[in-house]
Each structure stands twice: as C-alpha cells, then as structure tokens.
Design brief:
The chain is of the alpha+beta class. Helix content is 37%, strand content 14%.
C-alpha cells in the first residue's frame, strides 16, 4: 500500500487551533448576544455529520429567553447556576428515543430498517442507538460552534428528569447534557489540564 505522506484536505494550523488545540471549555461569558439566525446556521452545519443509518436522534432546545432561563435555573447544580445564567444561550442537547419514526424519510433506501427499533421488545436497542448517535452529534455540535466563532461550555450538573419534564414534556426526548454558548470570557478560564499521550490511550494492532 502506498504511503500517504501528504493527505488531502488537511486544515490550516490556525483552523486546527480554533477547533482543537486552543479551544477551551468556558465558565464565564462576555455580554455579546448570539442571534437566532446564528443558531439556525449552526444547526445547518451540525446536521451533516454522519450517524448510523442517518438516524439523527439529537434534539436541541436553545434556551435564550428570560422565561426559559427561569425554568432552567432551579434545575441546575449550584456550581453551574452563575455561568449558565450569564451565558447568551444554553443548548439543552437531548436524544429522541423514537428517532426511528423518521427513518423512512432519512434512510429511504432501506424501507424496513424502522422495524429494527420499533416495539417494546426493541426499546433497549433503540435507546442505546439514540444515546450513542445523539452523543456523536453533540460532539459535532461543539466543533461546529467553534468553527462559527462561538465558544462552548458543555456540562453535566443538573437534574436530568426535571429538565426532561420542564423542556421535553410529552415527547420521547431525553436530556443528554447542557452546553452554554457565546463568547467566552478568557479571564474566567481555569488552567488547562493535561491529556493522555498517544501510548497511554492508543495501541496499534
């Protein structure tokens, strides 16, 4: 096999810095608004990321009004209240347990695939698939936000059943995690933590 020493399409170093090397999880925010059009543009990028059978189970509620913030506030862990209430937008990122209802449209060349997930006896399989692929899409979400010049603050630390009740009531969507969005305040960043080296995390088989 021929060695590929100059792979095509490698992004410039500055772009890799923006997406990965210099990107941080933010805990404080500058008072700069994020408009609804920007959120729509963000989703238009995210939706193209691959999922198994194009199942696309991620669902998002963008919390950006005072009424919605008031509903979310009491459901947060104490350490997450200030940074969430000061964020221009908080994305509640969920996954739809009934994603398979959309499969005839999203994966039309395999008409019977919906049956692999429908029914009570297949609920566990559907939930695993929804969570796995919804989490995959959530990773795309963070990278797409960074690519659009936004900073992210993904977090746990909330009452998930209560968030489900407050924001997904009457639906088949369950909350995965929250992600604050906006322009981060560098003065409120923590020191960057180390990462595992290649030989600690990877092996070549």
């Amino acid at each position: 096999m021929q060695a590929d020493d100059t792979p095509r399409g490698v992004l410039p170093a500055a772009a890799l810095d923006t997406l990965w090397r210099q990107a941080r999880s933010h805990n404080g925010w500058l008072p700069v608004a994020v408009g609804d059009d920007r959120l729509r543009q963000l989703y238009e990028l995210v939706k193209w990321g691959p999922t198994s059978a194009n199942c696309s189970p991620m669902r998002i509620v963008f919390v950006r009004t005072e009424e919605a913030r008031a509903r979310l506030r009491p459901l947060l862990s104490p350490g997450n209240v200030e940074k969430t209430m000061s964020a221009p937008v908080t994305a509640i990122i969920g996954f739809d347990l009934d994603f398979h209802r959309q499969l005839p449209r999203l994966f039309p060349h395999s008409p019977g695939i919906r049956d692999a997930f429908a029914g009570a006896d297949k609920a566990a399989h559907a939930e695993r698939t929804a969570f796995r692929n919804g989490s995959l899409q959530a990773g795309y979400f963070i990278l797409a936000a960074r690519a659009m010049g936004l900073d992210c603050g993904p977090m746990s630390g909330f009452d998930a059943p209560a968030v489900d009740q407050a924001f997904w009531h009457g639906t088949s969507v369950r909350t995965n995690f929250l992600c604050n969005l906006g322009h981060g305040d560098p003065a409120k960043l923590f020191d960057r933590h180390p990462r595992l080296d290649f030989d600690e995390a990877c092996s070549l088989a």
